[in-house]
């Protein structure tokens, strides 16, 4: 009985380690021309876990083992991927809103 009583906490501990596994995913976000997309948002699908790429498009995020990532940036179509081990290279395609024009705002004096 004493062996069973000491074995039970060990099994519970091992099960919690199995369900709590995470991994770190790294990569770079680029546009369809190969240029870095600065400050893109990388989000683990179905959670509030998110990271932001740096000025060179590089990112790092800790996610669950079977998770997917949604990558978005202003002016680009959102992409959902299943990340691989090692460096992930993500290419975003420009959306139709790339034809932005300059807006000049002048105050009304009166």
Tell me the layout of helices and strands.
Blueprint: H1 2-19, E1 22-31, E2 41-44, E3 50-52, E4 58-64, E5 69-72, E6 79-81, E7 87-92
Parallel strand pairs: 1-7
Antiparallel strand pairs: 1-4, 2-3, 2-5, 5-6
Summarize the entry for a quick read.
With about 110 residues, this protein is α+β, with helices and mostly antiparallel strands.
What do you see in this structure?
The chain has one helix spanning 2-19; strands at residues 22-31, 41-44, 50-52, 58-64, 69-72, 79-81, 87-92. With 110 residues, it is α+β, with helices and mostly antiparallel strands. The chain has a domain at 22-96: Carboxypeptidase-like, regulatory domain (Immunoglobulin-like, Sandwich), CATH 2.60.40. The chain has a four-stranded antiparallel β-sheet with strand order 3-2-5-6, with no helix packed on it. Strands 4-1-7 form a three-stranded mixed β-sheet, with no helix packed on it. A hairpin with a 6-residue loop joins strand 5 and strand 6. It is elongated, with a radius of gyration of 22 Å. The mean pLDDT is 85.
CATH homologous superfamily identity of the domain at 22-96? Carboxypeptidase-like, regulatory domain
Q: What is the alpha-carbon Rg in Å?
A: 22 Å
Question: Mind summarizing the main beta sheet?
Answer: 4 strands, antiparallel
Query: For the terminal residues, how far apart are their CA atoms?
Result: 91 Å
Query: In order across it, which strands form the biggest sheet?
Result: 3-2-5-6
DSSP summary: helix tally: 1
Can you count the beta strands? 7
**Beta-strand residue fraction:** 25-35%
Q: Percent of residues in helical segments?
A: 10-25%
Instruction: Pick out the low-confidence regions.
Output: none
Based on CA inertia axes, which overall geometry fits?
elongated
